[in-house]
Design a protein that fits this description.
Elements: E1 5-7, H1 8-11, E2 12-15, E3 28-30, E4 36-38, E5 52-55, E6 59-61, H2 66-69, E7 74-76, E8 82-85, E9 91-94, H3 102-109, H4 112-122, H5 132-136, E10 139-141, H6 145-173
Length: 174
Amino acid sequence: MKSNYKTIEDLVIRVDERNSDCRVTELLGLSIDKCFIKSVANTIGTDISKYKIIRKDDFAVSLMQVSRDSKIPIARQKDIDIAIMSPAYPIFRVKDKNVILPEYLDMWFKRSEFDREAAFIAVGGVRGSMPWEEFAQMGVRVPDIETQRLIVHNYNVIEDRIALKRKINDNLAA
């Protein structure tokens, strides 16, 4: 692996905090579009004490059927302070924000090259899934923290401009 690359395992720690007191009721799912969605699952009679808690800046990933979809559902929770998810999802967070920014890692996971590599790794399994151990060995280019901040800032400026242009186009269409 190149010197400015680190494995995911070097950068993150898995989190397995359960909703044992059932105090969290906001249930989220994970979309193939790499974002969280409010779950529409019928949870009546479901023991939500076994569900995992996900906090702001935590990531969730679905490692099932990666090669079938050629896209790995993975996202950073950035909208809600605390929610719950199915215990089927591995949840993790950045170990040290002085080494890698959660926003930068999120951008890395959104790259089509990342999806292609994940699909290539997962193709060996019968169901096209990927074990956590293989996911954790995937590489991430980690520039210095100031460069990461600049990349994140520039990306956000571009995303904001795209959103503004869409809003203008929607107004024109109306």
